[in-house]
Amino acid sequence: xxxDELRFLAQQAAVDLVGRGRPVVPTVVLPGPSRTxxxxxxxxxxxxxxxxxxxxxxxxDRIAADGVPCWGFVAEADVAGRDGVLVAYGARxxxxxxxxxxxxxxxxxxxxxxxxxxxxxxxxFLHPLQHAVDALPGxxxxxxxxxxxxxxxxxxxxxx
Length: 160
Description:
Blueprint: H1 3-19, E1 27-30, E2 36-40, H2 48-64, E3 70-79, E4 82-91, E5 94-102, E6 116-117, H3 127-134, E7 158-159
Parallel strand pairs: 2-7
Antiparallel strand pairs: 1-2, 1-3, 3-4, 4-5, 5-6
Helix pairs in contact: 2-3
């Protein structure tokens, strides 16, 4: 898996979540070698400090403990004055990026805008996820263990 594939995986998770109906529950995407875990956070607080605490727990319990070298985050949000979905993602030795898509008239997603680096002051509650992957022991290729295609698999399936 390459970093662009992580973007695609996080966007596909957003499409899958939107397909389940609105509102889209804030969800952490945790790619793994045999499956991708979508960790719904229905009670994610509104306050950034409280959100930071919740995601610090996710970082400790799910990223650091399981050695997951990358992450994604999907949430419904106001995107340039319209309803849409934000998708943030990051990986060990890769600065987080952000993309978004508006809802169309049928509550499906329009095309995602090109990804851009996530401003360090934006979405500060996501910092624990990136800190956790950056703190993992060094490997030659942060994505090598997450790519089932390298072992003859069909790709990463999404599982709720």
